[in-house]
């Protein structure tokens, strides 16, 4: 192949959404950089199953005096293990970006303290690592949901939630422990909880940023409470905040639903219900 920056080969991606992946072992409490030279538009993802640890959807820069561009993804790993590195052809809704063909060349993965010169910008920019967050005591002590922060994923019973339509878990933007839940537009998460009839409860979800989120409580087809909107009560932790509804139970089993009803996804964490 002509005009390569190094060696004799590059990977050509001929069909939209085609790509390549590799499983790599990464160390805990470490920052890494994934970097590729490319032509056309691709995206980069670091994940395990449905949990995303970082993604770059097409952000790239020109490599001076060449026909190539470069893109990188700086990400943080908290727990050691194998992670999937995935590269995919992705026109981002603009097919003309791929008119000259799509190629990927000289892809590397380095720990942040071992990045050679010329592999992306000198400054490494992973997501900020904030101090560990704990839910307010009054919420945590009395909360009734199974798996409120979506950490437990060993089985359907221990996960606790039923999710309709598209979603993914986010380790790169979590409030409590290691992951949050991103609901795509039109998706919802549901859980059934037994309450004491006639008591007052509060239903709360934390949100990574303002998005249109519906929170509803239903018993046997009767809507007990509902709140829908974008406004959040801030908690002094970046853009994180919460939405909350207060209601009186009308029986025992109640169904709780959170749904992303706007045009963009909602990233949520630590959803809880407790007696007021």
TrEMBL record:
It comes from the Eukaryota. This is Uncharacterized protein.
């Amino acid at each position: 192949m002509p005009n390569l920056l190094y060696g004799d080969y590059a990977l050509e991606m001929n069909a939209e959404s085609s790509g390549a992946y590799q499983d790599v072992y990464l160390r805990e409490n470490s920052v890494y950089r994934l970097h590729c030279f490319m032509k056309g538009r691709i995206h980069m993802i670091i994940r395990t199953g449905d949990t995303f640890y970082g993604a770059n959807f097409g952000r790239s820069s020109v490599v001076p005096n060449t026909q190539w561009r470069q893109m990188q993804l700086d990400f943080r790993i908290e727990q050691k293990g194998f992670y999937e590195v995935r590269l995919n052809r992705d026109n981002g809704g603009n097919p003309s970006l791929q008119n000259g063909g799509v190629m990927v060349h000289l892809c590397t993965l380095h720990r942040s303290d071992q990045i050679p010169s010329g592999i992306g910008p000198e400054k490494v920019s992973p997501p900020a690592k904030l101090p560990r967050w704990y839910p307010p005591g009054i919420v945590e002590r009395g909360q009734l949901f199974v798996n409120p922060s979506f950490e437990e994923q060993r089985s359907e019973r221990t996960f606790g939630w039923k999710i309709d339509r598209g979603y993914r878990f986010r380790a790169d933007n979590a409030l409590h422990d290691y992951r949050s839940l991103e609901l795509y537009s039109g998706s919802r998460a549901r859980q059934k909880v037994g309450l004491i009839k006639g008591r007052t409860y509060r239903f709360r979800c934390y949100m990574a940023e303002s998005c249109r989120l519906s929170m509803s409580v239903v018993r046997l087809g009767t809507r007990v409470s509902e709140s829908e909107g974008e406004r959040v009560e801030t908690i002094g932790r970046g853009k994180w905040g919460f939405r909350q509804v207060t209601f009186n139970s009308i029986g025992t089993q109640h169904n709780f639903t959170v749904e992303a009803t706007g045009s963009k996804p909602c990233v949520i964490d630590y959803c809880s219900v407790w007696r007021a």
